[in-house]
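step 4 of 6: structure.
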Amino acid sequence: MSGTAVLVLADGTVYRGRAFGAPSTPASPGAGEVVFHTGMTGYQEILTDPSYAGQIVCMTYPEIGNVGVNPVDEESRGIFLRGFVVRDHVDFPSSWRARESLDAYLRRHGITGIWDVDTRALVRRLRDKGAQNGLIAHGEAALDELRARAAALPSMEGQNLVDAVTCEEPYEWAEGDSWSAGARPDPTYRVVAYDFGVKRNILRLLHDAGFDVTVVPARTSASEVLAMRPDGVFLSNGPGDPAAVPYAAEAVAELVERVPIFGICLGHQILGLGLGGKTEKLRFGHHGANQPAFCTRSKRVMIASENHGFALTAESLASNPEIEITHLNLNDDTVEGLRHRRLPVLSVQYHPEASPGPHDTAYLFSEFRALIGAQRA
Amino acid sequence: MPKRTDLKKVLLIGSGPIVIGQACEFDYSGTQACKALREEGVEVVLVNSNPATIMTDPDFASRTYIEPLTGQTVERILEIERPDALLPTLGGQTALNVAIDLAERGVLERLGVELIGAKLDAILMAEDRSRFGTAMEEIGLRMARSRYVRKLEEGAAALELVGLPAILRPSFTLGGSGGAIANTEAEFREKLEWGLRQSPRSEVLVEESVLGWKEFELEVMRDGADNVVIICSIENLDPMGIHTGDSITVAPAQTLTDKEYQRLRDASVAIIRKVGVDTGGSNIQFAVNPETGEIVVIEMNPRVSRSSALASKATGFPIAKIAAKLALGYTLDEIPNDITRETPASFEPTIDYVVTKIPRFAFEKFPEADARLGIQMKSVGEAMAIGRTFRESLQKGLRSLEVGSYGFEPVELSAEELREVLPELRPDRLWLIAQALRSGLSLEEVHERTQIDPWFLNQIRAIVDAERAIERGDFDLRAAKRDGFSDQRLASLTGVSEAEIRSRRLAEGIRPVFKRVDTCAAEFEAHTPYLYSTYEDECEAAPTERRKVIILGGGPNRIGQGIEFDYCCVHGVMGLTSDGFETLMVNCNPETVSTDYDTSDRLYFEPLTLEDVLEIVERERPVGVIVQFGGQTPLRLSVALEKAGVPILGTSPDAIDRAEDRERFAELLRTLGLLQPDNGTARSAEQALRLAESIGYPVLVRPSYVLGGRAMQIVYTASDLERYMREAVRVSPEHPVLVDRFLPDAVEVDVDAICDGTLAVIGGIMEHIEEAGVHSGDSACSLPPRSLSVSMCGRIREATRALALELGVRGLMNVQFAVVADELYVLEVNPRASRTVPFVSKAIGRPLAQLAARVMAGKSLTELGFVEEIVPEHISVKEAVFPFVKFPGVDTLLGPEMKSTGEVMGIDHAFGHAYAKAQRAAGMDLPTGGAVLVSVRDADKAEVEPAIRTLAELGFEVFATDRTALMLKESGVAAKTVSKVTAGSPHTVDLIRGGAVQLVIVTTDTSEPRAVRDSMAMRRAALEHGIAYFTTAAAAVVVAEAIRALCLEGLEPVALQDLSTGKPPVPETLRG
């Protein structure tokens, strides 16, 4: 059903497989930072998560495409990642919700894929050597040239990818999670959500938690936000290096004393930067739905969905005594959450909105609302 | 939360004998628990009646009781041992039931024993379906609509509620025993009546049918701090309607989106919290409507289950071990993940391969049984396969089953016939589906008839399509290997030999690589070499330079080859480890201890075929391979392996052949001056008849090279022999049939011995209780022998030693003898581990298989300090356990064909006590009073009479059928006459059903089909009403002896540790 394809890493390693998705062209091969995701479900949510902008994602679970794709499981208006790598792909979706096959979906969105690859070998290389750039080329290709091009790709460090994925205009979000039947609490609060590449499920869960949500572009200034008189500000997830979007941390620094804030993923990193912390690039990051997030307050472990290549360093946060580290990833002790000791400000590195992943930490949306409620009482 | 310091001594309950629905998986979980508890310094007291378990090895617990798993026995053990806690969640339903009994009777409270893992209330909430149903509604979930029925009259109202088809589930049974589907009102009534009898509480749940829905299972763990993780999701390829134990299952779930999967995950977390399982694992089953996604909760097991064992093997996450640690108070984040070492157990395993489990059935043993599958479990074993794609995993699974299949071989049925059989839920449905797709049925049509998710069907279609290309010769060999095709299947598709495919493959450099099972999809480095093969680029086997030995396991459990062989394999590992070898295990049975990644140094979870084993051997280059521990499976490979240049450790394949080849064996016996029953080998039906004529009827006939007595029969007449040759076997020059003189009144004797080539030492001599004609695996036996003379025992020893030395046995050997008056016949010699090795090892307190492995690897028996037979002072009795209750309409009569699934052991100071314990452990609690029903064939009357006299003297009321009653009266035993069933009511079966008798002794002339038919109702009635029944005269005699012992003094539990030290078995102080 498909021709040959290669995935070439910046270090020169070549993985052979077969082509699927949109054909690569010499002008636009699927090129980006190659990362792996260890979730066994949720490839459609991953494909449409803007946080993967600029990346090629390899799924560690080998059978991908089984349930096709459907309009409900899209996490954004499109696909921002650059390439998709899987072990096995059978173009035969089976699900009562499927409306399209994965292959057709990738083609429609112009995303290049490669399958029939020894993905485990690739993952082991990325694990041992760290995430690196790579590109996917369909058909017969001059490997040396591809190697050179892969090596020349820019590093993820210092890349501002937020500007490419954020919305152009502010908009209201008024849709909840169709899978949960719970009633919205009353009264509702107004939250302004910075879109650094926001996932729809975050907006849905904010809505369901009792927020009237206004989504604003990433470069919205603090004063513009305050002019909307929000009860709280939300900092979304997003792609790339947080240090490359200094305007966001600057806006947050202005907002932090004036309005309750909740951040997720990139939003968490930006909040940390706004509070004086620093971020570093992780070797291969955390991309999966099975990560142990330990809450230092409750001493309990939540299974969390995570997707980040950068993290706030514990040392940098220690310099601000008003910051409490509230969550740690038990696998490697990276910072996974923080709270301001004095202000109604909190953030987590992981994804309480899941999608894909477990719902263990969804309570944080209500907790944010409770924080605002307490503030206003 | 750190470990609790108040739990110093914990009692662990095992699951007893292997039965359908409860197999080696509980030895695996119990052994892990023992190890985990002892690692924490906890003193473990273990109770399990099954001697063929690793957990009951005296080294695995501080105190080991091989005793019946009944409330009363365990109560007495609690009184003796006074542990701090009882851990009931690792021994299957059996352990849970014992714990419920002890808790409900106030025993635990009286003795101050805490129930850890799951409290009584949690167990009861999960077990009691109406409470569980209410609990589900409270957390926003629902079960199928249902109603409990306790009387036949209540059936109609229940049926009104749920509609047809309706499901009937008797309460408190294991393995879905007695479950049934009713499609019509008449069927409903009939099944309800049967179900009410099945349930120990006479209670049946009548339930809405969700047949055809998708079925999923989630394995959940919770710790004392309320952390909950999902270890594994499992999707049943078979939709609802087939018991999950009989379903082909796949891990992880394949056909759920994340949104749908997370709903099941949320539900599972809510359920384990609601039920309140404090710590440990649970298995939760769901049905999902394939058209709407609607979820129905099917059930929850508040304990480690068969699926947990599968999930552990599928992910590398040791559920039972972790469960044991959690029960001591640890939390998940405090326990390290053994495989990654650097990460904690508080995460959810993620896998980067596909696992397929395929059940194995034994319907060939029960030709009268209904071979269609349903909600009652019928499989006896299972194979698991790991592949990087579903296709590879499935095809590896097919050849792992060892049913002579190496892929989707064609089935000779027309498209029309296939249309008809597809909806029938047949055990061979996978092959039928493939054939249907091959014959041009559309995928939609197959889906309509099987309700199997189209995704799976499409995968099978992809394999069938690939086969077409292969048959045309137009294929890429590497691509075919990547899809899981075996060399053998490729050979038959292309019309060449397997060797040709293999050499082409090697020439093209197409070799498998080995990947690791690591719980984390390679996110972290794996430190445990738990490997599977696949055809990809990178190999992670990383063999060491150590001196290593490969031990080939036994594959899926089946009747005749079960846990006993896994026990031997594990002991082989232990023995070789102590001699400094690196040990490598190859096996594909997920239930076993041998496939625990920390049993051997390296585990290859692979099919046991020549192709797969050779690839491992070539990758690892061991000093040798051991084939004599895993039963027939590895033994069958020995010649081919040797031919391929693989060193076989221990007894040479030539010596094995000398024992198995009829002519060479006869020559061997002549050389040694030993007798064997007249016999011959027939290569055609005519030859068989001529042979039988010259030997004289009755004769024992069977195909050559079989284990477990398959297709073995005693034949009394020429016309019976003709029928046998026509129907039961396919005789040919390559597949001859063996004809032996049958010795009707012989006492059979089993001997296990060990030999290093120069010294042969007897392990144990076992005298069978049942007379010749009953398969040795189905017969009870006693060690030491109970009736053989000293001189006969001496002759048996001498013959055994002579055989071992003459054959040059290195390792284990089993000999079966028959004693007729003063003559000793050799029936067969098996120079390999036998089914009785674990039993003998337990009885004599020496690990025979371990010693044998060390002998095979070069040690002498003298060096090992095992130079003479140990004849224990105590008596050990082994009894077989049968699956008859799962097969309605099947006769329970014993014969030369093995039918038992498991065994139990009774140990005591005297035979009667040991036998009574074994019976109790096998579920036949011998009565000490009441009434006995006797109906024996004429030939048995003289032998049975004294036994009945004994029972009468002990106060039993005696009922007997006409001629038996007459005989008893003549010899002065008062007996009331009862009509046989054929004579009309009131008859024997009415008596049994009415609860008027507590013991049934019925023997039948097996050469008379009519007599067998007429007496069958009696046997089935006794079985179904849970009344102790015995079907041989020999058993009747010992039963009377055992009952007398019971009447004189009760049974007292005894710990193995008190035996092995040489102390008398039952200390005076403990006898009441």
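step 5 of 6: annotate
 - The CA atoms of residues 848 and 898 of chain B lie 24 Å apart.
 - The two ends of chain B are 43 Å apart (CA to CA).
step 6 of 6: archive
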